[in-house]
């Protein structure tokens, strides 16, 4: 069966046979870099289209349907428009920071892709502190947002950036605690270990109620962390026009836009890895026949399906919920989610110690 | 007008006053203001210290224009004021001219006028519901609201020939008779809307985030509402009984069974509830009338050139936003000597500062949504 693992192994072997191992590593790095950029662009194209189609579905309308087959090239046309637009820099803006900000946000989004397992043994970097790495890098994007808000010399941007800063820093805690719940079950921070531990059942089923609670907290926290509705206060268009990216235009705006969608993909991928077994097929205990049938579905397909399921969930939030107010947002985190996730962590520890999880 | 704030300052440092407040210009082009309203907001962090509305961006001097228009012509300018209740505005002008001329209009015209008024109110409240939801970040309700509003617009288009600025009411009755499809279409709409109005509650009213955003926000007490001159759902949300249809019934409102919706909540949610209930009352009114439209003339016999006797005439009606009044001073000629419109939006806007003070900037948008501002109505 064709799998991504054999392809990568073949490339690796071929390179090692033909050039020295140093050069092989360098070439592999280049390939990976190109693939990441390609994935970045593809994700932008697909997710923006998906968002527009999902919103159209929620809003009893058709959505984009003119460019390409059923509007499939709409995002491409929009991107083309953005590329051709003039990138304005407002008067009085801090030019260096203003131009740097979109790249910081984008690079942060790209870096998180590194430890994510897209398929069986198909991973850029299986670092042994994978989960920690992810939560560390995901905090970097807030620096980009703060930079953008500050450097724009616009009060709306400034307010948006400050809101975003407060929001991301707070919700990072809950997201971190819900990730810790899973780490307790596996005893490892490495992504491949976490996935392999779900061989005979995903953690959402294995971890009993604490896992379900931590999944709910996780999905709320990451929705807030990616600045998505109902937590899109950083760019609340009815209050702050466009929040921190009010002054951005052209390709710099497009980078913010793309980074948002890549961030959604990344957090959903992490959610899929932690709670739904990443690329691991659906296995139920000792049902040998069932498990084997599930194994026939390629692992990459499993991963994509789970991730897009979660992405749909997050988009569903956006198109049905009103927006929270800034004090309500912080209340929700500090008064409800954080204590709840602390208790949940304790509960999960008890479950793990007593061996109640199966 | 510019004494407290200097709107021309735009660098962050210059705009920070000595007290450490930040001044933000919201509008005239801003997604939250639904038109060219300019608010100068003084903020301390996210908390609103002061809101100062600046008007004049869509001033067309309608009142002055009316002085050179005949009594048949000036009605059409009022469609351009509160464009969401243009029927009701036209109705008020027609009423005041009729009052001056002392014309008794046929029953059929009265029925048609009331049905169209209530349809307009429904359409206006539907648009408000969608826009209000969009203000607080829920985009989807807008499309649901427009689905039903589109049916009303189609009815209007068929009957009056226009979808927004109807100009259907004329002194003496209505311009022409109803379209043969009118009753059928209105009944279809009522049946459809009754099956869908619960969706409104499902998608928005019951939502916990929505309720948290609306409850306890934008509070205005009964006394304050009266002293600011608030009318319509804005005042009725504070427990003020001010429905002109009940208190000073015009046309056949005294013969119709409907309730005046009063809510004592005093906050944004109370105003929201009032409007939601009013939609149901409007449906009730239309249902009572639609099958009983009497046969007969749709217009009373009037002279070609109308001349109001010397004197002053004031009439008021209840629009979707509150009390709308037309005050005509006549010198006996073919054109009015002076016309003054009492628009509900202007008085309601004046209470905005009182409601918004101390709330967060996100609430300002919710409050503005809950008092349902139409800018061309405020700024004539």
Account of the 3D structure:
The complex is a heterodimer of chains A (358) and B (380). Chain A is built from 15 helices and two strands. Chain A is mainly α and 358 residues long. Chain A has one domain. A two-stranded antiparallel ribbon of chain A has the order 1-2. In chain A, helix 4 runs parallel beside helix 12. Chain B is α+β, with helices and mostly antiparallel strands and 380 residues long. Chain B folds into two domains: 43 residues, no CATH class; 317 residues, Cytochrome-c3 Hydrogenase, chain B (Orthogonal Bundle). Chain B is built from 16 helices and eight strands. In chain B, the strands form three sheets. Chain B has a three-stranded antiparallel beta sheet with strand order 1-2-3. In chain B, helix 5 packs antiparallel against helix 12 and helix 6 runs antiparallel to helix 7. The N terminus of chain B is likely disordered. At the A-B interface, helix 7, helix 11 and helix 15 of A face helix 5, helix 6, helix 8 and helix 15 of B.
């Amino acid at each position: 069966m064709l799998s991504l693992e054999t392809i990568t192994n073949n490339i690796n072997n071929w390179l090692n046979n033909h050039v020295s191992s140093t050069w092989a590593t360098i070439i592999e790095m280049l390939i990976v870099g190109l693939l990441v950029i390609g994935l970045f662009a593809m994700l932008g194209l697909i997710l923006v289209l998906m968002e527009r189609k999902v919103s159209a579905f929620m809003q009893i309308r058709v959505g984009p349907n003119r460019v390409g087959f059923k509007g499939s090239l709409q995002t491409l046309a929009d991107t083309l428009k953005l590329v051709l637009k003039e990138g304005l820099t407002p008067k009085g803006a801090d030019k260096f920071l203003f131009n740097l900000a979109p790249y910081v946000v984008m690079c942060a989004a790209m870096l998180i892709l590194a430890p994510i397992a897209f398929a069986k043994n198909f991973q850029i970097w299986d670092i042994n502190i994978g989960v920690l790495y992810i939560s560390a890098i995901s905090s970097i994007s807030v620096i980009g947002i703060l930079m953008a808000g500050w450097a724009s010399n616009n009060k709306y941007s400034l307010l948006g950036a400050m809101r975003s800063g407060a929001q991301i820093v707070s919700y990072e805690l809950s997201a971190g605690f819900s990730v810790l719940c899973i780490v307790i079950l596996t005893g490892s921070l490495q992504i491949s270990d976490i996935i392999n531990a779900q061989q005979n059942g995903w953690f959402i089923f294995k971890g009993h109620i604490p896992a379900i609670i931590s999944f709910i907290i996780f999905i709320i926290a990451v929705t807030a962390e990616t600045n998505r509705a109902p937590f899109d206060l950083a760019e609340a268009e009815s209050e702050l026009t466009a929040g921190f990216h009010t002054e951005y235009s052209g390709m710099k705006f497009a980078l913010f836009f793309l980074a948002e969608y890549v961030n959604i993909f990344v957090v959903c991928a992490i959610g899929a890895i932690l709670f739904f077994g990443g690329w691991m097929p659906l296995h139920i205990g000792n049902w040998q026949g069932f498990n084997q049938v599930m194994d026939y579905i390629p692992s990459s397909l499993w991963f994509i399906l789970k991730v897009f399921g979660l992405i749909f969930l997050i988009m569903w939030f956006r198109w049905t919920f009103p927006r929270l107010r800034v004090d309500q947002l912080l209340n929700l985190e500090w008064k409800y989610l954080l204590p709840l996730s602390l208790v949940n962590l304790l509960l999960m520890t008890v479950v793990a110690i007593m061996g109640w999880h199966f | 007008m510019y004494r407290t704030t200097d709107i021309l300052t735009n660098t962050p440092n210059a705009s920070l006053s000595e007290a450490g407040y930040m001044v933000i210009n919201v509008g005239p082009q801003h997604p939250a203001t639904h038109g060219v309203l300019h608010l100068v907001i003084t903020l301390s962090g996210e908390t609103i210290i002061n809101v100062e509305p600046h008007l004049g961006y869509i001033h067309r001097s309608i009142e002055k224009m009316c002085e050179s228009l005949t009594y048949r012509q000036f009605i059409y300018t009022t469609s351009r004021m509160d464009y969401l209740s243009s029927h009701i505005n036209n109705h008020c002008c027609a009423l005041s001219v009729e009052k001056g001329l002392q014309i008794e209009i046929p029953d059929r015209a009265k029925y048609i006028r009331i049905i169209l008024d209530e349809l307009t109110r429904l359409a206006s409240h539907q648009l408000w519901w969608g826009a209000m939801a969009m203000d607080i970040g829920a985009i989807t309700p807008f499309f649901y609201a427009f689905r039903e509003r589109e049916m009303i617009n189609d009815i209007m288009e068929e009957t009056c020939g226009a979808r927004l600025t109807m100009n259907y009411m004329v002194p003496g009755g209505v311009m022409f008779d109803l379209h043969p499809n009118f009753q059928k279409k209105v009944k279809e709409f009522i049946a459809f809307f009754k099956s869908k109005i619960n969706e409104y509650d499902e998608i928005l009213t019951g939502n916990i985030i929505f309720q948290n955003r609306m409850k306890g926000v934008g509070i205005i007490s009964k006394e304050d509402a009266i002293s600011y001159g608030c009318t319509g759902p804005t005042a009725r949300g504070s427990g003020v009984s001010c429905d002109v249809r009940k208190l000073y019934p015009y046309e056949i409102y005294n013969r119709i069974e409907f309730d005046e919706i009063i809510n004592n909540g005093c906050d944004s949610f109370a105003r929201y509830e009032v409007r939601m209930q009013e939609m149901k009352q409007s449906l009730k009114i239309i249902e009572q009338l639609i099958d009983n439209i009497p046969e007969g003339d749709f217009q009373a016999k009037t002279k070609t050139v109308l001349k109001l006797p010397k004197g002053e005439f004031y009439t008021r009606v209840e629009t979707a936003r509150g009390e709308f009044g037309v005050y005509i001073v006549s010198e006996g000629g073919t054109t009015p000597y002076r016309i003054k419109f009492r628009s509900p939006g202007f008085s309601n806007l004046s209470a905005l500062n009182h409601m918004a003070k101390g709330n967060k900037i996100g609430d300002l948008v919710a409050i503005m949504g809950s008092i349902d501002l139409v800018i061309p109505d405020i700024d004539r």
